[in-house]
Amino acid sequence: MTSRGALYFAIMAVVLIGTGIFQSWNVAFGILMMCMISAIMALGVNIQWGYGGLLNFGVMGFTALGGLTAMLVSYPPVPEAWAAGGSGIMLSLLLLLATVAAVMVARRKVPAQYKTLTTVVLIIAGFFLIRVFYLPAVDRIEAVNPGETGFLGGLGLPIIISWVLGGLVAAGAAWLIGKVALGLRADYLAIATLGIAEIIIAILKYEDWLTRGVKNVTGLPRPAPPQTEVMLAHWFVSINDFFGMDETRAAIALALKVIYVVLFLIVLVTIFWFSERALKSPWGRMMRAIRDNRDAAAAMGKNVTHRHLQVFVLGCAVVGVAGAMLTTLDGQLTPTTYIPLRYTFLIWVMVILGGSGNNWGAVLGGFIIWFVWVQSEPFGHWFMANVTMAMSEDNWLRNHLISGAVYMRYVLMGLILLTVLRFAPSGLIPERSKHSS
Amino acid sequence: MSYLAATHMTCGYGGANIIEDCSITVERGEVAVVVGPNGAGKSTAMKAIFGMLNLTEGSVLLDGQDITHLPPQDRVPKGMAMVPQNRNVFVLMTVQENLEMGAFIREDNIAPTMEQVYELFPVLYEKRYQLAGELSGGQRQQVAVGRALMTQPKLLMLDEPTAGVSPIVMDDLFDRIIEVARTGIAILMVEQNARQALEIADQGFVLVQGQNRFTDTGEALLANAEVRRSFLGG
Amino acid sequence: MDILNAFAMFANFVLIPATAYGAQLALGALGVTLIFGILRFANFAHGELMSFGAMATILATWGLQGMGVSIHPLPTALLALPVGILAAITVALLSDRFVYRFYRHNRASPITFAMASIGLMFLLAGLIRFIIGPQHQHFADGERFLISAFEFRELTGLSQGIAIRQTQVITFVVALVVMAALFWFLQKTKSGKAMRAYSDNEDLSLLSGINPDRVVMIAWMITAALAATAATLYGLDKVYQPFIFLQMLLPIFAATILGGIGQPVGAILGAFVVAYSEVMVTYAFRQVVGLLGPADWVPDSMLQLMSTNYKFAVSFIILVVVLLVRPTGIIRGKVIER
């Protein structure tokens, strides 16, 4: 990292500390945690875009898969639902696998002229066969206490396991998607991944037996003891008596946040370290060679499609980890909150601003953009309230401006992206060896 | 003073010079041919003359007027027309539309010129409503030349017009090019088929490594023993 | 009689709505395909451009309603549409002047263009929500039905009615007129031919003296006009809500690629294929089939391939299949590098 990069990080630290002092430490830590998650997502996108030149506009989908995994790992199973429809769902899954296997075998064995026909017939047959078991099972599961559960639940394991599993699930999905979509020209890949992400979100939203859909899954267990539990503990009560109620409560709340921060930091540092190692390794150099001149690299015998699949899977895995962490932090899975502007394109602004191809840049971009994104809301309110000071309280324009102020953050993000692209296309911390490699 | 006088041209891509101190001149009503081995900078010289590459040294004069710094599209109204080597027709448009597009900058009646082109290339008249992309290689070249003629150029530049066409079509195309020259148009042509091209050339330029090696009439070059040995295969 | 009833029901729930939706998609896809053909990039801000045009139309509609202007039984929005078109054109030309022109002159890669369009998408999305808010707006104030289901039943004596909403007819008629005008322009006028030439072969069009800035300007103007019209018609037919337009990008891109990039006819075909597939795959055919047989043979199943929730997924599946099977689209468009 250059001294200029160090300076940016120092400024960012000062700004966060300033937020702690002038707003509240709770807010500052809240922002810091989201900054770290954003940084991890930006690292994931940077692996794909900065290392490999892949345009993945499906970040949201992989974030959601991570979130789904967090819920599935941590939420206790719902035995009644399993009894009602578990077997049907499992049978459907087996049939799905069987269909896929049959199609793959058929595509290898069947003579060329019947290939398409056989594939289509197999897919249609599989589709209808699966429905026979799937639909009734879904109906039965969703009928089980719909107000409280109405879904299969999860495994009831510690949620922190999902930080690894979420990455694996996202990686698996990325492998499947990459097999199909990679090899498309960059902007077509972008369109394809945008669509895939929408499908993933649609599944999360509407497959109630799996996710409760729009009814959300709340109350996921946390990796750290919840505040109320701490407050009832004996040692807490005794400290409480000693220091006084309010101060201790605030201190405990903060301490819990610190636990999160430390956990997130471990993940961030680990992923960062591996990313940097990979970037500097012969593998990283080869990736950049492919990115800069795909044809030349292919002519030199590099298996471009295979390498692209590698970075795509790795990048998505990192995004999946971040997605699991995000859901852990929220303590709930709310499928409707996944929107592309926030979970895909905002991450892209982070990467472009920070400097594509540079991991320090991705982290810095994640921090800055998340900070600006969050703080622009109160700032917008304050700004509009001041601008419209002269107007009366019930002036429609005043109310309109104040209520609309929150959307100026989109405008701000657009302006940042356009400005960086135009005037500093290599970002705040540019890629180091752009010209020497 | 020659109609086109491109003198002492030096230029290239990214620092390395492809052509150096290269000079090419064409007279009205004459055919000038640039030949030379692969990588001699023939096509680069053409691009430089048409302004698709910026010269680091040298100048391009058209009819005595300095056009060295004019962008390509502004050279078209000055009377220059170019037929590129590849992708030289609008494949998704009909033959007639291709010709119309050639005459895009003209405000006057283009029908007489189009008639002339159809007279020169009768097969194009038959296929005027067909998409240019559906024509054979030789016919495409005719469309390409016809499109360039529609601007009523005073200088017609052709970059390897016979690349990839059969010898019969090539002879035919060369005949037409001589016909065009007889109407008073200056023609500058880069050719791979050096011998046949020099046969119709009033003036020939042999380029080697971006520099003029021989400059003489086509006849003289064909007679020159060294030219024959080195560039015409004996 | 039952076949007629089944057809009436099918027409009422599938054919007519899908045709209207297809026409709306087609107008959107035409714009995307024009920009794809002329500027050679996927314009992710197209949805927001549509949204902006519709928003301006709605604001103008409110203004007209406030002044008491009405063209009843037609919706006031039709009178306000020129305002929306002008607004969209202004946005498109401004964005070209201050964003895209720079990259065009530098011959930047399509990815850079696409990324810049993301920036504009953010910018416009923010402005739209700031100006009109994120909530949905109904602004169709004309006569609701051209013929209601009840009237149709009275008229024909069928048990199933076909309701034809006025907005559906307006959508179809306007789309037809606009498309005819566009094709006349592209096929018959000098500027239109220059646009096709530029899309076909940029270098050769420069050699012919075609002014690229002018071609690009006209392309943006047409695109913006189509976008504003499409979004206004969609809003009249269903509802206007800002977030819909980012989602609409998918079927629009699907239609564009399905039809062949840079191919206007293809974009229209693609749009109708996408629209019919979306509606048919997610429609429950139970009752239609029930009408075709004896009274009690109605099957238990809904005869619905996919839940309506997956409407957008259908367009995406079409997109993927096209990219894999025939990347050039129905009508051979620009080849997609693989």
Automatic annotation (TrEMBL), chain A:
<keyword id="KW-0472">Membrane</keyword>
<feature type="transmembrane region" description="Helical">
    <location>
        <begin position="54"/>
        <end position="75"/>
    </location>
</feature>
<feature type="transmembrane region" description="Helical">
    <location>
        <begin position="117"/>
        <end position="135"/>
    </location>
</feature>
<keyword id="KW-0812">Transmembrane</keyword>
<feature type="transmembrane region" description="Helical">
    <location>
        <begin position="309"/>
        <end position="326"/>
    </location>
</feature>
<protein>
    <submittedName>
        <fullName>Branched-chain amino acid ABC transporter permease</fullName>
    </submittedName>
</protein>
<dbReference type="GO" id="GO:0015658">
    <property type="term" value="F:branched-chain amino acid transmembrane transporter activity"/>
</dbReference>
<dbReference type="InterPro" id="IPR043428">
    <property type="entry name" value="LivM-like"/>
</dbReference>
<dbReference type="InterPro" id="IPR001851">
    <property type="entry name" value="ABC_transp_permease"/>
</dbReference>
<feature type="transmembrane region" description="Helical">
    <location>
        <begin position="5"/>
        <end position="22"/>
    </location>
</feature>
<feature type="transmembrane region" description="Helical">
    <location>
        <begin position="406"/>
        <end position="424"/>
    </location>
</feature>
<feature type="transmembrane region" description="Helical">
    <location>
        <begin position="346"/>
        <end position="374"/>
    </location>
</feature>
<dbReference type="Pfam" id="PF02653">
    <property type="entry name" value="BPD_transp_2"/>
</dbReference>
<keyword id="KW-1003">Cell membrane</keyword>
<feature type="transmembrane region" description="Helical">
    <location>
        <begin position="188"/>
        <end position="206"/>
    </location>
</feature>
Automatic annotation (TrEMBL), chain B:
<dbReference type="GO" id="GO:0015807">
    <property type="term" value="P:L-amino acid transport"/>
</dbReference>
<dbReference type="GO" id="GO:0016887">
    <property type="term" value="F:ATP hydrolysis activity"/>
</dbReference>
<dbReference type="GO" id="GO:0015658">
    <property type="term" value="F:branched-chain amino acid transmembrane transporter activity"/>
</dbReference>
<dbReference type="InterPro" id="IPR027417">
    <property type="entry name" value="P-loop_NTPase"/>
</dbReference>
<keyword id="KW-0813">Transport</keyword>
<dbReference type="InterPro" id="IPR052156">
    <property type="entry name" value="BCAA_Transport_ATP-bd_LivF"/>
</dbReference>
<keyword id="KW-0067">ATP-binding</keyword>
<dbReference type="InterPro" id="IPR003593">
    <property type="entry name" value="AAA+_ATPase"/>
</dbReference>
<feature type="domain" description="ABC transporter">
    <location>
        <begin position="4"/>
        <end position="234"/>
    </location>
</feature>
<dbReference type="InterPro" id="IPR003439">
    <property type="entry name" value="ABC_transporter-like_ATP-bd"/>
</dbReference>
<dbReference type="GO" id="GO:0005524">
    <property type="term" value="F:ATP binding"/>
</dbReference>
<dbReference type="Pfam" id="PF00005">
    <property type="entry name" value="ABC_tran"/>
</dbReference>
<protein>
    <submittedName>
        <fullName>ABC transporter ATP-binding protein</fullName>
    </submittedName>
</protein>
<keyword id="KW-0029">Amino-acid transport</keyword>
<keyword id="KW-0547">Nucleotide-binding</keyword>
Automatic annotation (TrEMBL), chain C:
<comment type="similarity">
    <text>Belongs to the binding-protein-dependent transport system permease family. LivHM subfamily.</text>
</comment>
<keyword id="KW-0813">Transport</keyword>
<dbReference type="GO" id="GO:0015190">
    <property type="term" value="F:L-leucine transmembrane transporter activity"/>
</dbReference>
<dbReference type="InterPro" id="IPR052157">
    <property type="entry name" value="BCAA_transport_permease"/>
</dbReference>
<feature type="transmembrane region" description="Helical">
    <location>
        <begin position="215"/>
        <end position="234"/>
    </location>
</feature>
<feature type="transmembrane region" description="Helical">
    <location>
        <begin position="49"/>
        <end position="71"/>
    </location>
</feature>
<feature type="transmembrane region" description="Helical">
    <location>
        <begin position="169"/>
        <end position="186"/>
    </location>
</feature>
<dbReference type="GO" id="GO:0042941">
    <property type="term" value="P:D-alanine transmembrane transport"/>
</dbReference>
<dbReference type="GO" id="GO:0015808">
    <property type="term" value="P:L-alanine transport"/>
</dbReference>
<keyword id="KW-0029">Amino-acid transport</keyword>
<feature type="transmembrane region" description="Helical">
    <location>
        <begin position="305"/>
        <end position="325"/>
    </location>
</feature>
<keyword id="KW-1003">Cell membrane</keyword>
<dbReference type="GO" id="GO:0005886">
    <property type="term" value="C:plasma membrane"/>
</dbReference>
<dbReference type="Pfam" id="PF02653">
    <property type="entry name" value="BPD_transp_2"/>
</dbReference>
<keyword id="KW-1133">Transmembrane helix</keyword>
